[in-house]
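Re: [help] complex structure
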Amino acid sequence: MPDMISVTIKLFAQYREGKFKIDKRFYAKDSTISDVLEDIGLDLGKFPIGVLMVNGRHVEEDFVLQDEQMLAIFPKVGGG
Amino acid sequence: MADKVYRVNMSNLSYKIEEVPANWMGLGGRGLTSTVIAEEVDPECHPLGPNNKMVFAPGLLSGTTAANSGRNSLGTKSPLTGGIKESNVGGTMAGIMAKLGVKALIIEGIPEDDSTFYHLHVTKDKVLIEAVPELVGKDNFFVLDAMEEKYNKKVAVMTIGRPGEMKMLISNISVRDPKGKLRSHGRGGVGAVMGSKKIKCITVDAENYKEVTYADSVKFKEASKVFTKALQENPISGEGLPAFGTNVLVNIINEAGGLPSHNFRTGNSENAEAICGETMAENIKERGGSTTHGCHAGCVIQCSQTYNDEEGNYLTSGFEYEMIWAFGANFGISNLDQIAKIDALMDDLGVDAIETGVTFGVAADTDLIDFGDGAEAYRILKEEVANGTPIGRIIGGAAGNLGKLYGLVRVPVVKNQSIPAYEPRAIKGQGITYVTTPMGADHTAGYAVATNILNSGGHIDPLQKEGQVALSRNLQIASAAVDSTGMCIFVAFPALDDPKCLPALIDMINARFGINLSADDVTNLGVNILKTEHEFNLKAGLTSADDRIPEFMKYETLPPTNAIWDFTNEEIDEFWNF
Ligand code: SF4
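Output below.
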């Protein structure tokens, strides 16, 4: 699959409900995080995106994913 | 009747009920405790000697119907840091003190006869001071039971366990919550100060108070509604905290490489999934228990919980991120139930989750204990610490002293106080708070994690230095002001992101007292508190050389981000230019 990339996706907090904790998925080259979000089908109306990280660094939804990256998706969470 | 200052002198076991001086009138919570300590305590005094004082003060809004307003502040000179301390807590004490008209309870002196401990009972018109030999050598839940039996189930109670009696630096003052569980005045070894004054417990009469009055109750109600709505509609305070508690942080801090693990060797932990808030919530669902519990009446966030074992038997409550991080990631216990058991024991003994957990992390670098050995940590607490054996004293002396005794370099403390659950190298704004706050390493003093990691109040890259000093300063000023209102720290999340939240908070204060504070006045209050505290520390002998991170963090990189602490002294000291 030369034009595909593999992305490891990790979900947290409410996003795990009925979904998964961790999953490896394949996407077309140049896919953004928005494309991934659409693919997973999270309930963003109820739980808006809080933080997105790729390989541990904060990114935005328009971030273009590369092969073998690790995407972590968090709803708004806090504590202290 | 106007509020009064209740002053107890333990040297001759007497008390006075005084008018509130004019310059204390508009103050509450931290603003009041730090003002009193600065005015009345010699900064050079020995924290455990006769010249130190303890000041308890409810927040400006405590006792009102305002949501989340039940925090009580304690001010003193800390035996751990040698500087000023303010420590605030939920529980029922703040509301009851405020309704009784206790603006502040000031305790000074030390009894000449130190052969026993005393119980103080505060009522509207007197303070009873009574020797309680039958409570000496007992721990917190025993004291709670005894007080409930003596008075009633509503009585407000503060108590110390055996470690507090023995003046250990890991000891807290524990406070009864509405369900008869405990919350703590944590950090700084404040339990030792109460122990030095030979006070075993303090109760406040909950039967004869009057509801607080409002200068403008209609306006108060309106503002209170807006405020409550802001708390409930915010996704963090309204959804995340009730569902997962503060422990939801394990995964996100781990993902960012900022979860101190193996005594601050790495920024992520192999135990994260086993100990995280999601796992905890699943366990609670399966085993019964409850994810929502308020540490005081009127909390609409309810971040606390009750946690059961596999058989459905109660293990602990108020099972917080800091505790789970300290024992799970930093000391390496991978079993959440074992951490819960230690948590319950520590509640009973009245020892600080962060200080004790970090001390075990440092101890794991010696031959005292191995990383992850939860059974041995439990045993040491139960047998050695509780009984004050030499090993117990070594652990009870906290991380900084343990490091010195064993000649260790990797000792994660600032001003001798243990660094909490966010790695300063990888979350640099939080690191600036640790080094600059007058409290010693304290995460609540200016929670830069919000903006560095959680995208609350915008985003500032946690690994870059730019903007962190200003961020930490603004947060510390705001926190000092909020700590004066009696509000819990989690009000910060809606306050950072919802423009209606802070004005509503100020409107409530104005309507309660019939005054006209502006947002600027509130900022000034925060500024004044910080400066007062800083000045006290300078007079106590602390200098800018104490506003520094442990040196190993300057030359050791932290996996997985490989960050180091790279602020210059000048960059840090810039903090105080305001
Ligand atoms: S949100 Fe948590 S800490 Fe704050 S008042 Fe409620 S239970 Fe206590």
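The two ends of chain A are 44 Å apart (CA to CA).
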